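Possible regression after last week's pipeline update?

I re-ran a chain I had predicted before the update to compare outputs. Posting the input and the new output here so someone can diff against the archived version. Not blocking, just want to make sure nothing changed silently.
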Amino acid sequence: MRRARKEIAIVILRLVLGLVVLAQSFIFLFGGDSARFFARNGLPEAIRLILGWSEVVAAILFLLPPTLMVGAWFLLATFAGAISLHLMHGQLEVGGLLVYSAAVLVVLAFRNSRSAKIGESFSQR
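New output (post-update):
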C-alpha cells in the first residue's frame, strides 16, 4: 500500500510540474514581460524563442511516460540555461527554477530506484 501511495504522489508531482512548466513556457513565449526583459538587456529575440520552445518540448516529453527520462534531462538542461541567463544579467530571482529542478530530480530518483528494484527482482528469478 505504501508503495502505491508513493507512486501516485510521484505521478501527481510529475503531472503538476509538467503542466505548470508548460503553462509558464507559453507565458514566457507570448507574455510581454519576458520580451521587454530581453530587449532591455540587449539579448536577441532568438534566444528567448529557443529557450521558450525548448521548455515546451521538454515539458511535453516529461509529461509522457515513455519519454519521461529524456524530458527530465532536457528540462534540467533548459532550467540550467535559464538560471545562467538570469544570473549573468543580475537577476537573482531563480528560486522557482531551482524548485522546478529539485522536483525533476525527485521524479528521476524515484524512477531510477524503481527501475533498479525491477531489475533486482528479475535477476533473483
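Follow-up from reviewer: compared with the archived run. The two ends are 24 Å apart (CA to CA). Marking as no regression found.
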